[in-house]
Amino acid sequence: MIPALALRQQAEEEAARLPALLARAEKLAGTVLLGEHGRRRAGQGDDFWQYRPLQPGDSRRSIDWRRSAKGDSDFVREREWQIAQSVLLWLDGAASMRFSSDKNLPTKAERARLLTLAAAILLIRGGERVGLTGWTLPPRRGQEQVLRLAEAFTTDDPDDYATPEARGMLPHARAIFVSDFLGNLDPVEAALTKAADRGVRGVMLQVLDPAEEAFPFEGRTIFESVGKSVAHETLKAGDLRSRYLDRLAERKARLDTLCRLTGWQYRCHHTNASAQSALLWIYRAMDGGHG
């Protein structure tokens, strides 16, 4: 059992992270120009959408007489009906995400939390319902939901690697998965396949530390997982570089292929790169574009 004093200190530390994370995410979200994410079609609404010719079955009351007076045909003024899209988030909170190779760089978890929350803020501002995969936090709108998401994102997972949560996938929803994806990829493949079967499309952002991409190690080195469940010592770390880089390239290629086969989009982001550029890619990808 955790002593009460230690538990209180841990709770205070987590609570202190929430406003700081929220402030940074709000600031980052403010750098991206909002677009429209909702699906549009004719129906009940306040905004003008289009004029179209009068068709059999249309009420005479629906005719726009001012537009019709400009020609010989009668026209109907259609309004816009915008259906908010449900967006489901999965953010890896496992121990491997708490790695940083340099004190001047954010951990993968810090960058992932920032990007995921900023994306959620943008989507909610655009009128979308945003929540978590699974059943702990269903998609909702509003600032209160932003606060709930921020609180959920400050929770750490003690395991070294996390498995994507693919339960509770709403049919035809959108999704954002953010992780280093350095664990077993079979659950990732199963999650994307399950999502695709339900018509869910989305984006997969792999967040890596630059050292994980470059493998700048030489001589005697002890490699240990953040959760300390895996350790490996070598006297010639440099001899492992080519094999490591090949394995990493294969992993990234598999992730990219999985996304292409299931209608998702994939991108790898490094913690020493611009957070704004990564957020912009997420936003454009969720809006139907390709970064």
TrEMBL record:
Pfam families according to UniProt: DUF58
Database matches in InterPro entries: DUF58 (IPR002881)
Residues covered by the DUF58 domain: 50-251
Organism superkingdom: Bacteria
PANTHER family on file: BLL2464 PROTEIN
Name assigned to this protein: DUF58 domain-containing protein
Source organism: Thalassococcus profundi
